[in-house]
UniProtKB/TrEMBL annotation:
Protein name as annotated: Major facilitator superfamily (MFS) profile domain-containing protein
Membrane spanning residue stretches: 40-59, 71-90, 96-116, 128-151, 157-179, 191-210, 216-235, 255-279, 291-314, 321-339, 351-370, 391-410, 430-449
Keyword Repeat: no
Protein location: Cell membrane
Biological source species: Amycolatopsis camponoti
Keywords: Membrane, Transmembrane, Transmembrane helix, Transport
Length: 465
């Protein structure tokens, strides 16, 4: 069973992460075929990221109540149906709906598969399983844009979605012999109302960012509605007996700071990753395959820079290590901005390498954030960290897209060629991302530093015997 479990975990980690990045290189082809503008195109990515992030907090509780095997089976079938519908979609609404279905399914697949580390594996197997999961995440992030470009160029963009189906089929075959049919005693009743309110708030805020660049009036209205729902969620959480986010986590300075740093990093990087293949095609004139390949340099740099990370943590502490890594990422973004006016790939390589190398030194953030919470909150804390990562990815695409769209529109009105206008907007996005990442670096040094003990707050210390 151990081998089957590891294979199932590896396939799930790879395919759910792949769908975050594979659409980037194929996005220009999708836009041309379906006649999408830049704002609408973003929803092909956001349609996956938002439900993924919004449902993660409640998915684990629902899996416990329904049973692991039924939940995983339903998730796999929904993910496969969404992939097939996305490939067959001939209209924007159908494509976005298919992506929403995939994102919702992924929100159940990820915690369901991660729970197998504990239920199916011994201590040694759990260590190996965690390494397999991490390696598959990195592989999907590295291969996503290049694979998306390759499929778009030679088979058509529909295969960006159809490529998921073999993974789903293999996981469906492995599932019955790997996941026990029984279920654990049901946990607490999930806070469905709170989840609905906070998810609606996030969707409205993201839509506001997308609309602000081209339709400011609609963007302001959406922003107001999203903030109102967000305020309602905060008030509800303060008064509720069963909170969606436990008070001993929100009151933990180090954990809350780690979440904020992760959000700032995601806001800066995710939008740049999504729009880079578009820039390479529209400004540099590259085909979809070559447009996505330079992003593989980022993944290579992450792998190359990872070995000295434990030494840096031991020598300087996790907060300084993460802060330095984010500062290097910001330097890479600024280096890209400095050469973005040049219509060539070569000058961009140093900036891409710096972004990857710096990102490797941000990896202690997650483990340190989990170290400072009580063991009884580790599952909830993991869900919050995963959800914040997905949420920041969605908001990053929307935010950088809003900046890019607004600046591009100004340049187009001034008579600049379309490619040059896009490049100018992309430079503005790079500068915005660098500012957000530098803010994350400063926050990491000032807030994230704290004891590496399994304590959440003075309140939580008293609650734990």
């Amino acid at each position: 069973m151990t081998r089957r479990t590891l294979v199932l975990i590896a396939l799930g980690a790879f395919v759910t992460t792949l769908d975050n990045t594979i659409v980037a290189a194929g996005a220009p082809s999708i836009a041309r075929d379906l006649g999408l503008d830049l704002g609408t195109l973003q929803w092909v990515a956001l349609g996956y990221m938002l439900p993924f992030a919004g449902l993660l907090l409640v998915a684990g509780t629902l899996i416990d109540r329904w049973g692991r095997r039924p939940a995983l089976l339903a998730g796999l079938l929904a993910f496969g149906i969404g992939a097939a519908a996305g490939g067959l979609a001939g209209a924007t609404s159908l494509l976005v709906a298919a992506r929403v279905l995939q994102g919702a399914a992924a929100a159940f697949l990820v915690p369901g598969l991660l729970s197998l580390l504990r239920s199916n594996l011994d201590a040694r197997g759990r260590t190996l399983g965690a390494a397999v999961w991490t390696a598959c995440l990195a592989a999907a992030l590295a291969l996503g844009p290049a694979l998306g470009g390759l499929l778009s160029e030679y088979l058509g963009w529909a295969w960006i979605f159809f490529v998921n189906l073999p993974f789903v089929a293999a996981m469906l075959v492995l599932l019955p012999g790997t996941v026990p049919a029984g279920r654990e005693p049901p946990g607490p009743r999930p806070a469905i109302g709170a989840m609905t309110v906070v998810t609606a708030s996030l969707v409205l805020l993201t839509a506001a960012l997308v609309e602000l660049g081209e339709n400011p009036r609609a963007g302001v209205a959406l922003l107001a509605a999203g903030l109102a729902l967000g305020a309602g969620f905060v008030l509800r959480e303060r008064r509720a007996r069963d909170r969606l986010v436990p008070a001993d986590l929100t009151g933990n300075r180090v954990f809350a700071g780690s979440l904020a740093v992760q959000v700032l990093w995601g806001l800066g990087i995710s939008g740049i990753v999504f729009f880079t293949p578009l820039l390479h095609q529209e400004f540099l004139g590259l085909d979809p395959v070559r447009a996505g390949l330079p992003l593989a340099l980022v993944a290579v740099a992450v792998v190359a820079a990872t070995p000295p990370v434990p030494w840096a943590v031991a020598r300087f502490g996790p907060h300084r290590t993460v802060g330095a890594g984010l500062a290097v990422v910001a330097g890479g973004l600024l280096a890209l901005a400095a050469v973005n006016h040049l219509p060539a790939i070569g000058p961009r390589v140093p900036g891409l390498v710096l972004i990857g190398a710096g990102s490797a030194f941000t990896t202690p953030l997650t483990s340190h954030a989990l170290d400072v919470v009580a063991e009884r909150r580790s599952g909830t804390a993991s869900g919050l960290l995963t959800a914040s990562r997905e949420l920041s990815s969605a908001l990053g695409v929307a935010l950088i897209g809003a900046v890019l769209t607004a600046v591009r529109a100004i340049r187009l009105d001034a008579g600049a060629p379309a490619g040059v206008a896009l490049a100018t907007g992309y430079t503005a996005g790079l500068l915005t991302a660098a500012g957000l990442t530098l803010a994350g670096a400063l926050l990491a040094v000032r807030v994230v530093g704290g004891p590496s003990a399994a304590t959440s707050s003075p309140r939580d210390k008293r609650a734990v015997p």
